[in-house]
Design a protein that fits this description.
The structure holds 3 protein chains of 3 kinds. By secondary structure, chain B is mainly α. Chain B is built from 10 helices and 2 strands. The two termini of chain B are 43 Å apart. Chain C starts with a helix and ends with a helix. Classes of the chains: A alpha/beta, B mainly alpha, C mainly alpha. Chains in contact: A-B, A-C, B-C.
């Protein structure tokens, strides 16, 4: 069995619309998966089932052998989530305190919390700002703080929902660098986007969602020509028949 | 935003800064209570002493004056009202009203009492981080049954977290509406509604997102306790404060 | 065995859902407290006396959150101010402000938000109940605020009312009227949490 098993997952919203419809997907440990689709294709809805923020109308998600619905808190420790809007996920009054929020919820002792926070802030290179108020950070720094807040909980899987929105060139490169670092140390990464250009070269697999269903699932190179049938812009280089260059080079 | 933080925490490492926040809060309450049972000369002395403590804590006197101004105006108003309405020996006449000796003394006593409590509050604020205040509040609320102290602590942080966001939203909404000529609408009812609904809607959506993000980070009321340590010198300082408060009460 | 496991799962699921709802209301109550604090700085500049929005948010805390969460919101607001967080108008916080001349109004917010939440819930969405609730709430705020001001200043009732209440009544009437459509626009957002 794979590390993450999504089986016939359906979600109907209270107003009756169908968010996702019968999704089957397996993700192995250490994989870097990009989930692409236009707005409203169900990307965010899918992600929010991985840590039990949404409960399925039908089907289930199995994380490392146990259904998410059985113990959502366990799922939230395994799957760390970086939300689309970095601003609205900051809780603490200082950078340090924000990164400590998760471990405090796990009721770790102070020394363990301190170690985790120092490590997490070092990974995203924010240790020098640890006494700053988050409100004054730049867009890229806020997103990195959000990542640190997730890393301090030491999850196996890190999920990014539209991580590049509202970031400038430098911010995008900062976040991309973080992703590659996490991938290198063996974390499983799931990244949703409607803009493949920035990330696809680094991914192991591309999954395309369309109207709540998985319509393509395979190696990025094989699928790039078809993306525009599903409302996702094809990267320029791929259109010209070349390889998509990394944004980090 | 500047107006909000003018007399906030000022970083420092003096004795007052290092004092355990729980003691500081108890001391603040004791000073407030002691101020009720003392006479005018002692009160003015205590005010001077407290002013020195505030300045020693690193509060720039200029900022202090600026921030105290509206409050001092209110105090002046109380003083005048007292001086004019208290019956007694007439000192002089201000317009149609007689100013009495008893009134001046009563007014000065009330004002210096409030000033003392205000200054003590400024001293605590300037020397205590928000996280320390939060930790102390949680500690004090812990023995009270039915009060989820950790949640109250979380709410305190959230208030501080939301404030700049709300003020930003309010400014943006105001600018966007001025750009579209809202100032031509004279109807105040219309303007209050047009201003409030977008600000509220946006901030409530942010709150939704924040609640989700907190849930994703395993939020629980049962969280790690905040760090609070006190040593002997904390107790000595407390003892000194108790003695000073007793002196206030004796005279 | 299987059914036992299922009920356990069901129970877990329900616990998680109540936890999520509680958390959301906690965040909303903190937001209303922050709005009340910010409301002291938000003024619509009309005529010689600008309309300060603070008590509008007290009304809305009662109408939108109900009496329990409304009380939590105002209670934490006052607690924050008492311990020196910069939430009171003029930037100066601390116990001094609560025992100071305007302290009575601040403390009056507590019974006011309780009454507004409690009365308006008697008939959900009924405008008459909402308006009556806000008028009673306003009366309570002034009863406490003016009494305390009178104790501190020693003025006659007539004079205290003239400086501590009469100048603000027109603005209050306006804010009560405005709170009706505002709460109507916001209730769907808040209620999806309270009931869903």
């Amino acid at each position: 069995m794979s590390f993450i098993e999504i089986r016939n997952l359906c979600h109907r919203f209270p107003d009756g619309t169908l968010g996702i419809d019968g999704i089957d997907l397996s993700i192995e440990k250490g994989e870097f998966v990009v989930i692409a689709g236009k707005n409203g294709s169900g990307k965010t809805t899918l992600l929010r089932h991985l840590n039990g923020l949404l409960t399925p109308s039908n089907g289930e998600v199995i994380l490392d052998g146990m259904s998410v619905g059985q113990d959502p808190r366990r799922a939230r420790r395994i799957v760390g989530m970086v939300f689309q809007d970095a601003d609205s996920q900051i809780v603490g009054e200082t950078v340090y305190e924000d990164a400590a929020f998760g471990p405090e919820n796990l009721k770790l002792d102070r020394e363990a919390i301190r170690q985790r926070v120092v490590n997490a802030l070092a990974v995203v290179a924010l240790e020098r700002l640890s006494e700053q108020r988050p409100h004054i950070l730049s867009g890229g720094e806020k997103r990195r703080l959000a990542i640190a807040g997730v890393l301090a909980m030491e999850p196996e899987v890190v999920v990014f929902d539209e991580p590049f929105s509202n970031l400038d060139y430098d911010g995008i490169r900062q976040v991309l660098t973080q992703m590659l670092t996490l991938h290198k140390v063996g974390k499983t990464l799931l990244v949703t986007t409607h803009d493949l250009e920035k990330v696809i070269t680094h991914a192991d697999r591309l999954v395309i969602l369309f109207e709540g269903e998985v319509v393509r699932n395979g190696a990025p190179a094989d699928l790039l020509e078809e993306t525009e049938n599903f409302g996702v812009r094809q990267p320029c280089a791929a259109r010209l028949g070349g390889e998509v260059p990394s944004w980090l080079d | 935003m500047a107006g909000l933080t003018a007399l906030g925490y000022i970083s420092g490492s003096g004795r007052l800064h290092r004092w355990d926040p729980r003691f500081k809060i108890v001391a603040l309450i004791m000073v407030s209570l002691a101020s009720l049972g003392t006479s005018l000369p002692v009160l003015s002395g205590a005010c001077l002493l407290m002013l020195m403590v505030v300045i020693r804590a690193g509060v720039p006197p200029g900022a202090l004056m600026r921030d105290l101004k509206p409050v001092v105006l209110l105090l002046l108003f109380i003083f005048l009202a007292r001086a004019l309405v208290t019956p007694g020996e007439q000192l002089f006449v201000l317009g149609p009203w007689p100013v009495t000796r008893e009134g001046v003394i009563a007014g000065a006593a009330i004002c210096s009492r409030l000033l003392l409590v205000l200054l003590a509050g400024v001293a605590v604020m300037a020397s205590t981080r928000l996280s320390e205040i939060k930790a102390a509040v949680e500690w004090f609320l812990k023995p009270i049954p039915g009060v989820p102290e950790k949640r109250v602590g979380t709410m305190l942080s959230l208030i501080v977290r939301f404030l700049p966001h709300i003020l930003d939203q309010a400014r943006e909404t105001g600018e966007a509406q001025r750009a579209r000529g809202i100032e031509n609408r004279k109807n105040p009812f219309y303007r209050v509604i047009r201003f409030s609904i977008p600000v509220l809607r946006r901030t409530f959506l942010t709150a939704d997102q924040l609640a989700l993000a907190m849930e994703a980070r395993c939020y629980a009321d049962d969280r790690t306790d905040a760090e609070l340590v006190s040593d002997r010198s904390d107790w000595i300082l407390m003892g000194t404060t108790v003695l000073l408060c007793l002196c206030l009460l004796m005279f | 065995m299987t059914s036992n496991k299922q009920t356990l799962a069901q129970q877990r699921k329900m616990e998680t859902e109540t936890g999520g709802r509680q958390l959301r209301m906690t965040v909303y109550a903190s937001l209303m407290a922050a709005l009340t604090a910010a409301g002291a700085y938000m003024a619509i500049p009309i005529g010689p006396v600008p309309i300060v929005l603070q008590n509008l948010f007290i009304y809305l805390a009662g109408l939108l959150l109900g009496w329990r969460w409304g009380l939590a919101s105002v209670g934490v607001y006052i607690l924050a101010g008492a311990f020196g967080l910069p939430v009171f108008a003029g930037g100066l916080g601390g116990i001094g402000r609560i025992v100071g001349p305007t302290g009575g109004y601040l403390i009056g917010f507590l019974p006011a938000v309780f009454l507004i939440g409690w009365i308006s819930a008697k008939r959900k969405g009924n405008v008459v109940y909402d308006v009556v609730a806000m008028i009673i709430g306003t009366a309570v705020i002034y009863a406490m605020g003016v009494s305390w001001l009178k104790i501190l200043t020693g003025m006659t009732w007539g004079k205290t009312l003239a400086v501590g209440m009469l100048p603000f009544l027109i603005g209050d009437a306006l804010k009560i009227a405005a709170a009706v459509p505002i709460s109507k626009a916001l209730r769907p957002i808040v209620n999806k949490t309270k009931e869903a």
